[in-house]
Fold NLE domain-containing protein.
Amino acid sequence: MDQTKKRIKPNQITLLPPDTRVFVTLINPYGEEAQKSLELSVNTTKEELQSILQQLVKTEEDQVYSFFHNNVELIDTLNQLIVSDPEYKLENTFSLTYHPQSLFRIQPITRQTAALEGHEQPVLCVQFRTHGDVLATGSGDTTIRLWDMLTETPIATLKGHKNWVLCLAWSPDCKYIASGSHDGQVCIWDVETNQLKGQPLIGHTKWVTSIAWQPMHLDEECTLVASSSKDGSVRIWSRISLSCLISINAHQKAITKMLWGGQGYIYTASEDTTIGVWNKSGKRVQELKGHGHWVNSIALHTDYTIRCACFSEGNTEINRKQAKVLYDKMLNGKNERLVSGSDDQTLMLWEYTSSKPKVRMTGHQQQVNHVQFSPDGRYIVSASFDKSLRIWDGYNGNWIATLRGHVGSVYQVSWSSDSRYMLSASKDSTLKLWSLSKKKLAFDLPGHADEVYAVDWAPIGGEKAGSGGKDRRVKIWRH
């Protein structure tokens, strides 16, 4: 069943008399009531409910909410929503779930504006700086290239790796890039000088699979960065001393993905079918067990908030405080939610406090390659080798929709910052833009000559996306 917005056509239903009153309960996404119940007229509008809710939960006046009953959205008045539910009886309390809405809207990506040449081997990773002004791309040619997004021209080529650049990550303050390569080396680059800091960091015995900086609100100077490897270890490096501070022998088999969460924990997904949760001293806090095959991808519902920590260039204290405020608001007094995708064709939703999953999500017909929470934390999208994407509820794991259109494996997916669109990269050489509200393809984006391995949508601003793949070209896409 489709579990998001279903619009009711007024002429298809018989409305209740306008003087009818009902008891309404307002419930947050976690299932908690804002107040026991309110007696309201059936002619209460969405705008009036907004005002009532703002007073009940004491939020900012400009915070906008959407309201749902049984996953049907309130568009106009309560009356239309009530009569759309044949099971509801007037003597019962009518439940409405509310969700905060984004205060801005991103235009959909519809066209290619640049094909940037320079890499001599496939492009394996792409990531925008937080504000979207610079794109970093890593390649099999051992280099990282920086591209100016205003002029769509090259800024610099970073040379220091001796093998394929498999992963890279901007520091939260946007001043540094850390990258990992196929020979196990980690490099830290100063973006102001476009130079390698010191020498490549050596320690991993197999290739690097992930890079993650400690979040801004925990480390305002961005001094610590972690790397995970095919060798099963995590290493925490100091940007200052350029040395390994801690080595965690996390798994007996390869680590496929590693994240540094905002509660201070490091999460590691492994080919040994488990997910490890570690503190930065290297002590294991939890082992998450449930998958029957390799865990390929993990994501936190706070990933976007953590990524967008850099507000003010130079003032680290302002950045740290602002990042903490936004992170705490996203957490809302709860724990971080983690989603995982596996070769066993399932996803699982977790909290680090329990070793067992909250829910197991089934439906994909082949391995799940990539998972990502929407920036608002409400939805999860999964990309699979079965050529489809699936949308799931980010709180309870319920299936919402299946998106079909690719004719090859889907490798990666990236959300627009307003959580309204998804951009997927595929083996079939295309990118595709999907609409969350319509739950279908919005735009087909051909342009690459071969498989597309990586895609990123600029997190702040959001008017551009970048992609890279086997054809060695970096493509820029805009509205």
Observations:
- Residues 1-11 have pLDDT under 50 and may be disordered.
- Residues 10-100 form a domain with the Ubiquitin-like (UB roll) fold (CATH 3.10.20.90).
- The chain is about 10% helix and 40% strand.
